[in-house]
Design brief:
The structure holds 2 protein chains of 2 kinds. Chain A has a two-stranded antiparallel sheet with strand order 1-2. Chain A is built from 11 helices and 2 strands. Chain A is mostly helical. Chain B is α+β, with helices and mostly antiparallel strands. In chain B, strands 1-3-2 form a 3-stranded antiparallel sheet. In chain B, a hairpin with a 6-residue loop joins β2 and β3. Chain B starts with a helix and ends in a 6-residue tail after the last helix. The chains are: A mainly alpha, B alpha+beta. Chains A and B meet through α2, α3 and α4 of A and α2 and α3 of B.
Chain lengths: 320, 111
């Protein structure tokens, strides 16, 4: 008899993923068991073809059966590694794309790319980084799951109560208030010090302002006014005992005002004292530095403002 | 999920371990896959073929069963038999089942 039966095909399919050494033995046993089951059904008066079909249907997907024979996991990441895998992926997703976006944007700006080009490459890099992190961490855990063969790979430590997360700070305690007031006082003091005494030093002229003296009094005065508003905001958050959506929104507006003002001055070359470049920096280094210093300041200001906005909203959402 | 479906999963979970015990006891006299499947069904341990066959392999790999091909009959069959280690495992499992039954009997009575 040379016709290939469904049973032949079933046994063949099941043996495909079984290691060579067990194959002959397992195939003979499986075939014998299937034949036994078919014969029992035929003896009960069933048609042979229908009996064969019923027996094979009951046995189910041959690859699943083979996996049970050989103890192969039928999942991508099993319960043993799932939490470790998920925590690591979330951690990497939280850190790496933001760093990559910042780095790419900074590099592209320094090399003189236009806004559209920068936005395009940041978007594509961030997307690629997210996908890569997802793929490679999953691949590593997929391999670990299969190579450990039921033995513990030592990736997952025994859980102890010491690993419990700290209760989340609401960010509205006295220490937060003191910290932000001190920061604002230091910032205002630095602005005034810079104007009256100077923060940049050159051997030729002595101390001189780092910021453009033309910014006095209106721009500097406006900035100090915003800092005072920020101090009031910090006090009101402390008084309420928590961040809420309203105070987080005010915080965004204040950040946008500061960052927007600084960026406007930077782009128009009005922020840094022109004498700073003439006096403090050696002549041969001026050309690249006149673009690098403002770019780095701009990125720093935007990054800090963006983080501050997000942080306030996260605290507002958590304390709801 | 209907109530019977919910029952089914829990009943299945409860029965899973008892199939091992039944196999180890029945295979004190050598038996082969399909024959054992029938015996289990008759004795009140209904089992699916695709659960039983891999289970026999696993128990053999763990040393609780030994196997031998029997080629005397028209169809060669692989016969399994409980090893001394398998008999000890069966005794331990049976003790455990009895202990569980006693513990259940000592629970507060059904409403």
């Amino acid at each position: 008899m040379t016709t290939i039966t469904l049973t032949d095909r079933y046994v063949d399919a099941a043996m495909r993923t079984v290691p060579e050494a067990q194959r002959a033995d397992l195939a003979a046993e499986l075939r014998g068991s299937i034949d036994d089951q078919i014969e029992a059904r035929v003896a009960d008066g069933e048609d042979r073809a229908a009996a064969e079909r019923a027996v094979l249907t009951e046995l189910g997907d041959p690859e699943r059966l083979a996996a049970q024979y050989t103890d192969r996991p039928l999942w991508l990441i099993g319960p043993r590694y799932f939490l470790t895998w998920w925590r690591l992926t979330k951690l990497l997703w939280a850190i790496v794309p933001a760093c990559a976006a910042f780095g790419v944007a900074l590099g592209q700006t320094l090399s003189g790319a236009g806004f559209g080009e920068i936005a395009g490459s940041v978007a594509s890099v961030v997307l690629a980084v997210i996908v890569h992190i997802g793929f490679w961490t999953t691949l590593v855990f997929f391999i670990v799951e299969r190579s450990a063969r039921g033995a513990d790979a030592g990736l997952v430590g025994e859980w102890t109560p010491d690993q419990l997360p700290e209760p989340r700070q609401k960010g509205a305690g006295l220490s937060d208030l003191v910290a932000s007031l001190i920061f604002l006082a230091v910032a205002s003091g630095a602005l005034l010090w810079d104007h009256f005494i100077g923060l940049a030093y050159s051997p030729a002229t002595g101390w001189m302002p780092f910021l453009d003296p033309d910014l006095w009094p209106w721009w500097i005065g406006g900035l100090i006014a915003v800092l005072v508003l920020e101090a009031l905001l910090a006090i009101s958050v402390y008084a309420k005992g928590r961040w809420d959506i309203g105070s987080a929104t005010v915080n965004v507006i204040l950040n946008v005002v500061v960052a927007g003002g600084v960026l406007y001055l930077l782009v128009n070359g009005l922020l840094v004292n022109p004498a700073f470049f003439d006096e403090v920096i050696p002549a041969e280094a001026i050309e690249p530095l006149t673009t690098v210093v403002p770019t780095i300041i701009g990125f720093g200001v935007v990054a800090i403002a963006a983080w501050d906005c997000v942080d306030a909203f996260l605290k507002a959402l958590r304390s709801r | 999920m209907s109530e019977t479906e919910g029952h089914d999963t829990h009943l299945q979970e409860l029965r899973r371990g008892t199939v091992v015990l039944a196999c180890l006891r029945l295979l004190a006299t050598p038996g082969y896959g399909y024959g054992l499947l029938e015996q289990l069904g008759e004795r009140g341990f209904p089992t699916d073929a695709n659960t039983l066959y891999p289970l026999l392999r696993r128990l053999e790999k763990q040393g609780f069963l030994s196997s031998e091909w029997n080629t005397d009959e028209a169809r060669p069959r692989k016969f399994y038999r409980t090893t001394p280690a398998g008999a000890r495992l069966a005794a331990a499992l049976a003790d455990e089942v009895r202990a569980i039954a006693d513990a259940i009997a000592a629970l507060p009575p059904e409403e």
